[in-house]
Design goal:
heterodimer, A: mainly alpha, Ferritin, two-stranded antiparallel ribbon, 14 helices, 68% helix, B: 275 residues, mainly alpha, PaaC (chain B), PaaA_PaaC (chain B), Aromatic_CoA_ox/epox (chain B), Phenylacetate-CoA oxygenase subunit PaaI (chain B)
Chain lengths: 328, 275
């Protein structure tokens, strides 16, 4: 993409736009140093930041169970998974920084409620089965959303997504494997799994966002090839993927309208309660306040540590300069 | 990359356990290792040594897990989890070895979930609450330096299993000590507040030193490390005031029982369950 960069110095904006449009049309990647329209940059920063925030807030619902996991093997798996989420947050904040955003500023926006994270993490995790169901449904839905983003037009985001998707698919299998084990256990464990499935199914379908007719940001993102499939297409894909897995597991998905449609070659399914999604996105979900509060207190309580690291680095640099001065 | 391939691959069976993070996938951690207790090694004391070292690691991992979503920076989330996972891995291997040699055939979870505080043999420093980040990194510096010095000796232990666990642990603990030392230096040198907090943390850990050096004769090496780090951090070496009692004898602070109650809560609430 170096040709684009050198073009920037000489070409008027109209030509830059044409070059950008041609790059998108050829399915080539936009890289950080390339010219891009402001709207493209803003949309990407918003989307990548929301994604990073979702990874970080998403550590909380499952993270609560690390200290209580009922076997050392499950404890290690869960601890490693939650750690992976912190790692995903880090790569995504780095991808946002290639667009000129600043991690500290994005964190401020998150804790002040000016930027969103996935609504799914505002639901509570009252039982250990929720750890398995989050892996199966929530990581599964995240994969459906994110696999197409591995072909996103913005290079750093696409590359981060390749690594993240590999790890998410691994988490999904671990979650499903926990549920398989629990379903082979006691009656109380089977009930715990079904109860968790009942609570997470509809919120998981809402993870794909509002229906296509009501999704304000989708059209531009599709045209710019930041997004590659519509919300409804991805939701359908998730349902089709999950139904046979539920059968194999021996649980019932809580939707009386769910059935195979031979003509469409897809499952028909009921309509999620979109007013609930609006409420949760609007801040009124069961755990919104708690999630933001935890992130805020970790950030505020850690301020003296970050200040100390900055002060130490500055003192070290000063000492290095003094030593050089003494040598000279 | 093809979308469809990734989606399809999720529905298929997978046997590629090599991708499981941090050795979490295995059922038998000592698979393939000769587990016969060598002649001249007392099985009872070998088992007791393994349990004590495993208890230190498990209790420390539990405290590190409590930092999850509360760390001062995302890099610290990742690093503290790494250290916690290493220690959890050490605990699992050591419990497994204890179960093989103590004649009970117990698995790792029997030790972790179905013993009470009085049966735990961890040193008390491991069970103290996390406090602030300064206390946590100062404690980590002391415990990792102490454990590393002992593991270096244990890597020549006549029991090949314990020796192998220790040799693997040496690499991990070297990183833990390095991480903690870097933070103690940053905090000691950083701001007035971080200096004050770190100095206080050193004073808070000092009463628990005696117990560490009674357990293993590694005092000189550990003190040398602490002297080097505190000097680089511009902090005074803490005054040594030994506290009576020892976790190794089953004497604990009031902090261990609640830690274990949380750790064991789900496992004990579902007798007969499999996870």
């Amino acid at each position: 993409m170096t040709t684009t960069h050198s073009a920037e110095a000489t070409l008027p904006e109209g030509s830059l736009q044409e070059h950008f449009d041609a790059t998108i049309a050829r399915d080539q990647r936009i890289e950080p140093r390339d010219w891009m329209p402001d709207g493209y940059r803003r949309t990407l920063v918003r989307q990548i930041a929301q994604h990073a925030h979702s990874e970080i807030i998403g550590m909380q619902p499952e993270g609560e169970w690390i200290t209580r996991a009922p076997s050392l093997r499950r404890k290690a798996i869960l601890f490693a998974k939650v750690q992976d989420e912190a790692g995903h947050g880090l790569y995504l904040y780095s991808a946002a920084e290639t667009l000129g955003a600043d991690r500290a500023d994005l964190t401020e926006r998150l804790i002040e409620g000016r930027q969103k994270y996935s609504s799914i993490f505002n639901y509570p995790t009252p039982t250990f089965a929720d750890v398995g169901v989050i892996g199966w449904f929530v990581d599964g839905a995240a994969i459906c959303n994110q696999v197409p983003l591995c072909r996103s037009s913005y290079g750093p985001y696409a590359r981060a997504m390749v690594r993240i998707c590999k790890e998410e698919s691994f988490h999904q299998r671990q979650g499903y494997e926990l549920l398989m084990t629990m379903m082979r256990g006691t009656g109380a464990q089977r009930e715990m799994v079904q109860d968790s499935v009942d609570r997470w199914w509809w919120p998981s379908l809402m993870m794909f966002g509002p229906p296509d007719g009501d999704s304000p940001n989708s059209a531009a993102s599709m045209a710019w090839k930041i997004k590659r499939h519509t919300n409804d297409e991805l939701r359908q894909r998730f349902v089709d993927m999950t139904v046979p897995q539920a059968e194999k597991l021996g649980v019932t998905l809580p939707d009386p309208e769910l059935r195979w449609n031979v003509e469409r070659g897809h499952h028909d399914f009921g309509t999620p309660d979109w007013s609930e999604l609006k409420r949760v996105i609007g801040g009124d979900g069961p755990c919104n306040a708690q999630r933001t509060q935890r992130r805020r207190s970790a950030h505020e309580e850690g301020a003296w540590v970050r200040d100390a690291a900055t002060a130490h680095a500055a003192k070290q640099a000063e000492r290095a300069r003094e030593r050089e001065g003494a040598v000279a | 990359m093809s979308d469809d391939h990734v989606y399809l691959s999720l529905a298929e069976g997978h046997e590629d356990d090599a991708r499981w993070a941090y050795g979490t996938g295995f059922e038998d951690p000592l698979h393939g290792v000769d587990t016969t207790v060598p002649a001249g090694v007392d099985a009872g004391s070998l088992a007791a040594d393994c349990v004590a070292l495993a208890d230190d690691a498990l209790v420390s991992a539990q405290r590190l897990a409590e930092w999850t979503t509360r760390a001062p920076e995302l890099e610290e989330e990742v690093a503290l989890a790494n250290i916690g996972l290493d220690l959890l891995g050490q605990a699992r291997l050591l419990y497994a070895r204890a179960g093989q040699v103590d004649g009970t055939g117990r698995g790792e979870d029997a030790y972790a979930y179905f013993r009470d505080a009085a049966d735990f043999r961890n040193v008390r420093l491991a069970e103290l609450p996390n406090g602030d980040f300064a206390f946590s990194v100062v404690r980590l510096l002391v415990l990792s330096s102490w454990r590393l010095a002992h593991f270096e000796e244990l890597s020549a232990h006549p029991d090949p299993v314990l020796a192998a666990v220790a040799a693997k642990g040496v690499k991990e603990l070297t990183y833990h000590r390095q991480y903690a030392a870097e933070w103690v230096v940053r905090l000691g040198d950083g701001t007035d507040e971080s200096h004050r907090r770190t100095r206080r943390a050193l004073e808070q850990v000092a009463p628990y030193f005696g117990e560490l050096f009674t357990a293993y004769d590694v005092r000189d090496g550990v003190v040398a490390v602490l002297r080097q780090v505190t000097e680089a951090a511009g902090l005074p070496m803490p005054v040594y005031r030994p506290l009576p009692g020892a976790g190794r004898s089953g004497e604990h602070t009031g902090h261990l029982a609640p830690l274990l109650a949380e750790l064991q809560s789900v496992a004990r609430a579902h007798p007969g369950a499999t996870w």
